[in-house]
Design goal:
The chain is of the alpha+beta class. It has a single domain, classed as Metallo-beta-lactamase, Chain A. Helices cover 19% and strands 31% of the residues. It has 8 helices and 16 strands. The protein has helices spanning 30-33, 46-49, 101-107, 125-128, 152-158, 169-179, 231-234, 246-260; strands at residues 9-13, 16-29, 54-55, 59-71, 74-78, 117-119, 132-135, 138-141, 147-151, 183-186, 196-200, 209-215, 218-222, 266-268, 277-283, 286-290. The strands form 3 sheets. Strands 1, 2, 3, 4, 5, 6, 9 and 10 form an 8-stranded mixed sheet that branches. A 6-stranded mixed sheet has the order 11-12-13-14-15-16. Strands 7-8 form a two-stranded antiparallel sheet. Strand 3 and strand 4 form a beta hairpin. The chain binds zinc ion (ZN). Zinc ion is lined by residues 124, 126-127, 225, 271. Residues 124, 126-127, 225, 271 line the site of zinc ion (ZN).
Amino acid sequence: MSDRLYDTLNWQIGDVSITRMVEVVIKTPISTLFPSENPDELKPYHDWLKPNFIVDGDNILISIHAFLINAGGKKIIVDTCAGNGKKLPLFDEWTNLDTPFLENMSKLGFAPDSIDLVMCTHLHFDHVGWNTHKVNGEWVPTFPNARYLFNETEWDYWKDHEDPYESHALEHALQPIFDAKLVQLIGPNHRVNDEISLIPTPGHTPGHASVLIQSKGEEAVITGDMFHHPLQMAKPGWIDMADMDTDVAEQTRIKFMQRFGDTSSTVLGTHFATPTAGKIVSDGDGYRFES
Ligand SMILES: [Zn+2]
């Protein structure tokens, strides 16, 4: 796949810098995520979905990346991707990964031991993977000097449920963080500092949250998986096989677009391929993503 899908991208929101660091990009038929929907219904939107987000006929790109944030001297990683050496479901591309993820963080000025905060929009395996890494056969925290912020509603659910994909995130990537006493359980509207806060965006998972960045009159929002793909701006009601509560997920997408649509806010898609960032703009009865 082309290099531009893996490029490091940067955005400046007031005093806050945000860097996208890609782990892996997956290309898959639309029907993988939306098995009950008809891809032909997207044709009216191909003018803005192609060529960045829909490619080679009816295939979508899904980018697995972390956002590295520097805000007021605090270094934050939002979503820690899939991780190396794991057997993960659905796609061959992220099984047994062997990427220089931690070396790449260091090169970008985010050495793992310099991270102050780890934020996870939700606790699915492709958002918590590098919470830990394997040392001498044991899963230990990758970011030993960080507080890990887990949404309490999210943890309440996942602590008793192995995810349906049997990724073993609970034992590999969550429990070791509790054992090391690095977790801070937080509410859905948690505020980290003047510039960084959470907004609840449930439906994909029970305690899913998006990350709001506000500085000097500028604003950006990291979606998490309340959008998997920009096509959901045209089709917020399409049933996404990975959403746990499809009705709530649809309502969340609509409310999110009403809140951020036709504003100057930069929307950073957690799985949106390059260019990843854009604005939500009204389009007829709905919305489109203008990147
Ligand atoms: Zn995801």
